[in-house]
Design goal:
This protein has 238 residues and is of the alpha/beta class. It folds into 2 domains: 127 residues, ATPase, nucleotide binding domain (Nucleotidyltransferase, domain 5, 2-Layer Sandwich), CATH 3.30.420; 85 residues, Nucleotidyltransferase, domain 5. The chain has 7 helices and 12 strands. A hairpin with a 2-residue loop joins β8 and β9. α1 packs parallel to α2 and α3 crosses α6. It is globular. The protein starts with a strand and ends with a helix.
């Protein structure tokens, strides 16, 4: 089963192609958020280099969020369009799940963190059971101070991964008394191969969707929507 996976949930743009248990190729760029210009070029290049046609793909997969509103729309729309054009199914993979999947550990709690601005992060906690990574909290958007309290309640050492590490690393070390680790740089950011591997397992379990069903997953409204609500509420109070 061939799976083409896309991740554009943050500044990283990533594409991967798997054939069963074999990773055939993976492209990744972490330089400016130009997904609308780069993504289809990356998709075309990986298919050309691997001598695979879009029609040969069995399942298209996309990281669905949380993350950048614009980035998620571009990635999800691209996967939907290719799936529709080839009459193939799609699979949406939560971004935090794929990030947690990057980390191999048997004892630590895994905590992927994505920058949500204003000292907040999108996150969830995971642990490994029977060689499988399982999510043990809801997907949440919280201030980093609140995340620290959630972690302390677990009374276990944690390993962080994700693009928010650079912003909050010193804070976590201080607040958690050093009872934390940080994923290596090589697996700290999004990898489309993780999206593809999760999607492959979901496809085998029959968890696919049509191109019309796939939608991004947002934990909160966009900045534009929040600003509009403020203006409308302000008008209502007059």
């Amino acid at each position: 089963m061939k799976v083409l996976a896309i991740d554009t949930s943050t500044v990283v743009a990533a594409v991967a192609l798997m054939d069963g248990e074999k990773l055939l190729g993976e492209y990744s760029l972490n330089n400016k958020k130009t997904h609308s210009q780069k993504l289809m070029v990356m998709v075309k290049e990986i298919l050309t280099d691997l001598e695979i046609k879009p029609a040969d793909i069995d399942v298209f997969a996309a990281s669905i969020g949380p993350g950048s509103f614009t980035g998620l729309r571009i990635g999800v729309t691209t996967a939907k369009a290719m799936a529709y054009a080839t009459s193939k199914p799609v699979i949406g993979v939560p971004t935090l799940d794929a990030l947690a999947y990057n980390v191999v550990t048997s004892s630590l709690i895994i905590c992927p963190i994505l920058d949500a601005r204003n000292n907040q992060v999108f996150t969830a906690l995971y642990e490994t059971k029977d060689n499988k990574i399982e999510r043990i909290t809801e997907y949440i958007g919280v201030p980093v101070s609140e995340l620290v309290q959630i972690i302390k309640e677990k009374n276990r050492k944690v390993i962080f991964t994700g693009d928010a590490i650079d912003l909050h690393k010193d804070f976590f070390i201080s607040e958690l008394d050093g009872n934390c680790e940080f994923a290596p740089l090589s697996v700290r950011l999004q990898r489309a191969s993780s999206v593809a591997e999760i999607a492959l397992k979901m496809a085998k379990d029959g968890k696919t969707e049509s191109s019309f069903e796939l939608v991004p997953f947002y934990l909160r409204k966009s900045q534009a929507e929040r600003e509009l609500e403020k203006k409308l509420c302000g008008k209502g109070e007059k």
